[in-house]
Structures are given as structure tokens and as C-alpha cells.
Amino acid sequence: PQLKRLIKMILKTHNRIICRYQVVFALILLTHTGLKAQNNGLSFDGVEEEAQVGPLSIFDGVTNQPFTIEAWFNPAQTVNKGTVWSIGVNTGENLRLKQVAGGGMAVDNIDGDVIVGSSPDIATNRWHHSAVVYDGTELTLYIDGIEEGKASIALTMEGTGFRIGRGTFDFANFWEGAIDEIRIWDYARTKSEIFDYLFLNVDGTEVGLVHSYNFNETAGTALPDLTGGTNGTTV
Prior knowledge:
- This protein has 2 helices and 15 strands.
- It has helices at about 1-35, 190-195, and strands at about 40-45, 50-55, 65-75, 85-90, 95-100, 105-110, 115, 130-135, 140-145, 145-150, 160-165, 175-185, 210-215, 220-225, 230-235.
- The chain is globular and about 40 Å long.
């Protein structure tokens, strides 16, 4: 058992190093090839800044609805324990992606019970990609294209609230850092699909893409949905 755990740890570390090399290499290519579009992000001060979106029909009281939520995040510190995004209301029908003490990321519910979490080595002041994938039975968390863990769970979501940069209701954990490119799909995307789209822009017409926010606005409070669905507002 100890040997198996050691091998698993070595493989996971190796995969993370390879993935980060690929991520950095792709960023260099984007910077020097002219493929980079207007790329702005939304900055949060960790106090009372957020973006509000809703309602999202895909989550409106549907049980075990498959989905994928992707987001780029750049944490400014490791102690704030802020929220990247959250769904739902104060009724138990909710979910959020948050930072935990020590710098790791986790998906939990309104009771604060961690469903699945990542390793703690999520560097600050660097961009990371996250994907929360639910296939109707299992929920999986990916960070920078690497599967961090999965858990079997039944989910009934409430679509009346989707917040970016803070938790819903008593989840007042405001994000400190930046967030970019939130995409919501109505099916469980594969690991290959997630990695292949890490650095690709979407135009909102992709099959299965139900909401997409690229944060490229430079003024005002509007947060357009590229799919033409539900627009948001920055607060």
C-alpha cells in the first residue's frame, strides 16, 4: 500500500509538472503569435466586490443535471479563503468553488462540507484554470488540467443565484485577486475537451455552451453573456 501511494504521488507530481509546462508554453505562444485577443479580467479586492448573474435555468431545481463550470482565477493571497463562484440559495441547494486555508481549492456546499478538494500548492499571483465537472453521479475538480479528485454525490441545484467573487447568502467569502473566462456547459466535458479549450476563445455558439462571460469590458457595470443568455452586473 505504501509503495502504491508513493507511485501515485510521483505520477501526480509528474503530470502536474508536465501540465504546467504545457500551460506556460501555450501562454508564451499566445503572447508572441498574435492569436491573443483582448484579454481583460475582473479584479476583486476581497472586501465587498462581486458580480451577480441569474437566474440560470440549467440549475433551476433540476436533480442530477450534468454540467461543467470553468473559470480562470488568480489568487492574491492564501488566507482570505474567498469564493470564485457560487450557485444557489440558503436552502441546501447550492455549490461553490472556494479557496481553503493554505492555498488549495475546494468545492463545497452551504454547510461548508468539502465535497472535493485540491492539493494546497496553488501559487498566488499566477493564473490557474479550474473546471468543476458533474456527470449526474460524480463531481470532479480539475485544476490546471489535472484531476484533483472526485466524489459521488446527488445534486439538486437552485438557479436563482449565481455569484462571481463571493458566496451565496451567508457565504460572504469575497475573492481577493482576479477572475476571468467563466464558462458553463450543460454536459460533463471530458478531460481532453477541458485541456484543448484552455487557451481558445469561444464565441458563444459552441454546442453545449449555455453561458459564457469573458470579462473583456473596460467600463460600466454590465457583464454580457456571450451566448445571449443571462447577463450579469458587477457590484
